[in-house]
Amino acid sequence: MSATTPTDPQRHETGWDRAVWPLLIFVLVLVMLIIAGGLLYVAVRHPALATPLQVATGGVGLLATLVTLMVTLPRR
């Protein structure tokens, strides 16, 4: 009789798998905060750019929200 590995339909997570997602989320939030800080700095130093930056930031926020909804809702 040959030794075969049993097929397990459930995937076992390792320590690496559990650590990647929180680290990835942390890095993404950190990058977004750095970008937001840069935009705030530009808006304060150059008041004429404040309105266009607000519109652009709102558009990017709306796009990010829509992409998040499109990715998460089909998985339910």
Keywords, please?
76 residues, 71% helix, 2 helices
Summarize the structure in words.
With 76 residues, this protein is mainly alpha-helical. The chain has one domain. Helices cover 71% and strands 0% of the residues. It is built from two helices and no strands. The chain has helices at 15-45, 50-72. The longest helix is centred in the middle third of the chain and has 31 residues, at 15-45. The protein starts with 14 loop residues before the first helix and ends with a helix. The model has no long low-confidence stretch (mean pLDDT 81).
CA-atom Rg in angstroms:
21 Å
Q: What average pLDDT do the residues reach? A: 81
Q: How many angstroms separate the termini?
A: 42 Å
Strands, total number: 0
Tell me roughly what share of residues is in helical segments.
Answer: over 70%
* Main sheet specs: none
Structural class: mainly alpha
Number of domains: 1
Series of secondary-structure elements, N-terminal to C-terminal: HH
Shape: elongated
Note the total helix count.
Answer: 2
